[in-house]
Write a sequence for this structure.
């Protein structure tokens, strides 16, 4: 089911192990509800990687659940269905290299790249320092 950004971000703030709420690149979000209780959210948006901002690719920026069985896979699938209906052709997302990605595989994603963690600040584009969380794997699903 759809969910607005603020309640989705509140769920992420309360439950996600390492990621912060989404700010600028938000486009839409889905939720999993079981027995009338919010069990998970997926937040989709414009890709953070500028090279992927082609108008046909969206990024699942956050996928956060309370551990409810199959909730992650359901959220990835719902995000992809919504993206396809909106005209997107490719969905991407990232996991820490230490995570298995089993929910992503179940939702039809495949690993396509290894991404080294680094600070985003540079002389030509100063940014706030961020907490480094580790190397990541980029996953992709063609819609």
């Amino acid at each position: 089911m759809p969910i607005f950004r603020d309640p989705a971000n509140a769920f992420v703030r309360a439950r996600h192990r390492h990621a912060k709420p989404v700010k600028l690149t938000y486009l839409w979000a889905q939720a999993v509800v079981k027995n009338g209780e919010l069990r998970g959210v997926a937040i989709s948006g414009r890709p953070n990687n500028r090279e992927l901002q082609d108008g046909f690719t969206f990024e699942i920026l956050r996928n956060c659940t309370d551990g409810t069985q199959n909730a992650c896979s359901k959220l990835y699938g719902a995000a992809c269905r919504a993206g396809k209906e909106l005209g997107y052709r490719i969905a991407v997302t990232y996991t820490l290299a230490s995570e298995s990605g089993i929910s992503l595989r179940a939702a039809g994603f495949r690993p396509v790249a290894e991404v080294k963690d680094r600070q985003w600040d540079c002389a030509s584009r100063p940014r706030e320092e961020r907490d480094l969380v580790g190397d990541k794997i980029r996953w992709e699903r063609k819609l």
In short: The two ends are 20 Å apart (CA to CA). The chain has one domain: 5-142. The helical segments are 5-15, 71-85, 102-106.
